[in-house]
Amino acid sequence: MEKKNIDWENLGFGYIKTDYRYVSDYKNGAWDEGGLTEDDNVVINECAGVLQYAQTVFEGLKAYTTEDGRIVTFRPDLNAERMVQSAERLEMPVFPADRFVDAVTQTVKANAAYVPPYGSGATLYIRPYMFGSNPVIGVKPADEYQFRVFTTPVGPYFKGGVKPLTIRVSDFDRAAPHGTGHIKAGLNYAMSLHAIVDAHKNGYDENMYLDAATRKKVEETGGANFLFVTKDNTVVTPKSNSILPSITRRSLIHVAEAYLGLKVEEREVYLDEVEEFAECGLCGTAAVISPVGKIVDHGKEIFLPSGMNEMGPVTKKLYDTLTGIQMGRIEAPEGWIHVIE
Ligand code: PLP
Ligand code: COI
């Protein structure tokens, strides 16, 4: 199959229309059989539940070309499972997990010409999502829904690739205790837009959100979980009910322990202790692992000893092992790699 003529090495994280997308509709209490379409437009009523009350959830995963030329995705079953949890929290019907994986597989296969070549540094980002599609004016869940999957080839999420980021402690909250921070709902990202625009205006790459109840504990950023490394090489990652359970983070915990023999602590992390850490990184599908060089807390600058030029050594080992597994250079744990073709 011939690849599209795209400058893979210089792709940013943006939307490029690909040829096919998957659509399934939910009506009268059941999902239809679904299938691929070339139509990239969604036509819904002006009063659709998603437009009035933001009833929408989504997922994000990637397809990779491996060293031996296969196209694979990474743990799509966990994205399917998380979308079930997101849908349940927003009173939406569940799109069955096996059908989710099948829809992702069909969409990637149909867009194989857009899966970036091995070694290009780019990947095919996959965006499954669903939304309330029929008119809703009283505040209640919709009765009809649409599930879709589209794909877009992407490069690094942060400009500059793996150059360490400068982040600030945000005065805005992302998620409330007992709220929706633990699910992947569009409303959480709408909440973060003002904070990220303001951060960029002030010269920061991202926001570090604190727990809304006490504002003493580290939560996550707008689109990634945190990983810290202590001076004696223990990996520490914040535990909270109001952060998204990142699949990348959960995978990295296993990689750290089983592949690299590192100690891992998943626990509450206080802002006060951040200056003690040796390394910091942001992890997620889009972010992969993006190193953090500096954290600014209301004028107080915390420089990570790993510096502003490169990833810290433990972060680098985690990055190399995870991406090695995803690209087929390192043997994956059972069930982590889903072969598309
Ligand atoms: N946290 C937030 C708020 C996110 O949007 C994402 C991206 O999906 C993550 C964390 C990382 O999750 P994952 O590793 O499953 O992509
Ligand atoms: C992802 O990593 O898949 C996300 O959804 C994060 C988003 C900020 C692009």
Structure explained in plain terms:
This protein has helices at 49-53, 76-89, 97-110, 186-201, 247-259, 313-326; strands at residues 21-27, 30-31, 35-37, 56-58, 61-65, 71-74, 123-132, 145-154, 165-169, 206-208, 225-229, 235-238, 264-267, 279-284, 288-297, 300-303, 337-339. The protein has 341 residues and is of the alpha+beta class. Strand 15 (288-297) and strand 16 form a beta hairpin. It is built from 6 helices and 17 strands. Helix 2 (76-89) packs across helix 3 (97-110). 43% of the residues are buried. The strands form 2 sheets. Strands 1, 2, 3, 4, 5, 6, 7, 8 and 17 form a 9-stranded antiparallel β-sheet that branches. Strands 9, 10, 11, 12, 13, 14, 15 and 16 form an 8-stranded mixed β-sheet that branches. The mean pLDDT is 97. Pyridoxal-5'-phosphate (PLP) binds next to helix 5.
